[in-house]
Amino acid sequence: MLKIAWSKEFNHPLPEGHRFPMIKYDLIPEQLLYEGTIRPGNLFQPAFLSEENILLTHTLEYWHKLKYLELSPAEIRKTGFPLSKELIDREVVIMGGTFEASMFAKKYGIGMNVAGGTHHAYTDKGEGFCLLNDNAISANILIARKLATKVLIIDLDVHQGDGTAEIFRNKNEVFTFSMHGANNFPAKKEKSDLDIPLPDKTGDKEYLKILDITLNSLLEKVQPDFIFYQSGVDVLSSDKLGKLGLSREGCKQRDFMVLDLCKRNNIPLTISMGGGYSENLKDIIEAHCNTFRLAQNIFF
């Protein structure tokens, strides 16, 4: 059964000026329910992730700055959000959603989070609308509990997973792969285990060819027993911030490659949605919904 983390807290605590495109966190499940791709039983309300689990990834000093709302004005500006208790609560629920989705992935082969993909959060700081790093936290929990021995993080958001790369730069149990726009945020890139920076306007044909070759070689090289996938749709040509040139169908084919690879090789997969900033909200919702549709069709 496809299990999807969703909470009203993913959207509503954000100030009005920050609601678009965050409103997608409500519209994605609404669309999937309306069209019959999922039923209410597919959605689950995640719990707050414990402090103990957060501290497997983030430093105590940084976590206390978040918990007690003690970030400096400069640190707050880097996150992109005004700091509040509601914002921190939202972030901790998102962390719980990705971890619980990982537990469902162990049971059903796949688990998904309507939110997440907070790959710009470092061990000791937040940036780019990311305060805590959900895929990193969940990967570290799985390793600590001996539920995985080799984790592959596939990050296909248009922005490099800089925080994830920093967190795992000295950890052999996790292999980080980021394919992203070369001329995009962050200006200073970190070093993932594998980075593929793409030139502006890279389209479907070239993108999918590179990805196909890379995924197959990575599977052989890394031999993961668990995969996290950051499926941001800011790779679309319509994206205001992305600079790449994928069509909606190309983005769907990208997702198919990752999901099909995991299904054929019996590797549990957890998916977080990541970014999407197209002018037309429909482009964002449809591209994200395609990921869930593929999950339902491929795995169930």
From TrEMBL:
Task: Indicate whether Mitochondrion appears among the record's keywords.
Answer: no
Q: Which GO terms describe its biological process?
A: epigenetic regulation of gene expression
Domain Histone deacetylase per the UniProt entry, residue ranges: 23-290
Q: Which GO terms describe its molecular function?
A: histone deacetylase activity; hydrolase activity
Q: Does the keyword tRNA-binding apply?
A: no
Q: Which CDD domains match?
A: HDAC_classIV
Highest taxon of source: Bacteria
What single Pfam family name could you report for this chain, choosing any that match?
Hist_deacetyl
Q: Which UniProt keywords apply?
A: Hydrolase
Using the record for this protein, list the coiled-coil segments as residue ranges, or answer none: none
Entry similarity comment: Belongs to the histone deacetylase family.
Protein name in the entry? Histone deacetylase domain-containing protein
Which source organism?
A: Sporocytophaga myxococcoides
